[in-house]
Amino acid sequence: MERPSLEIKLPDTHEEGKLYVVDSLNNLNKLNVCPDGSQHSLDEEENTGGTGENTAGSNIRNQCLFVTFILTLIVSLALVSFVIFLIIQTRNKMDQISSRLISEKKNIEELKKMNNMILKHLNQSGIKE
């Protein structure tokens, strides 16, 4: 299986630039050659020299992920609880306002009735403006 070679024309760069390009090409080659699962194991072997010393780092990373997950759950629970509290408070305030509006509506209707009664009484007594 032959792959077409990549011809890269680089301008004159410093040694660091050349090393960076070579490292990038090596990483690209690893991505093309290795499947996703084995890429991680290759990186771990390079970092530890293939001796399995990475298990402690993996455990620490897993513990950090677990602690982060737990903290995220706690913060989410607190936020949800706060939102529920706000919804309940808003519902209580709306109930209070609606009961006030109903009582004010009753008062306005009573005032209209009284006004009509006064106007009828004035019309019957013959006092006109």
UniProtKB/TrEMBL annotation:
One Pfam family from the record: DUF4577
Parts of the chain that traverse the membrane: 65-88
Keyword field contains Transmembrane: yes
Protein name: Leucine-rich single-pass membrane protein 1
Region of interest: Disordered: 36-56
Keyword Transcription: no
Domain of life per record: Eukaryota
Entries under InterPro entries matching the protein: DUF4577
Gene that encodes it: LSMEM1
Keywords: Membrane, Transmembrane, Transmembrane helix
The organism of origin for this protein: Aptenodytes patagonicus (King penguin)
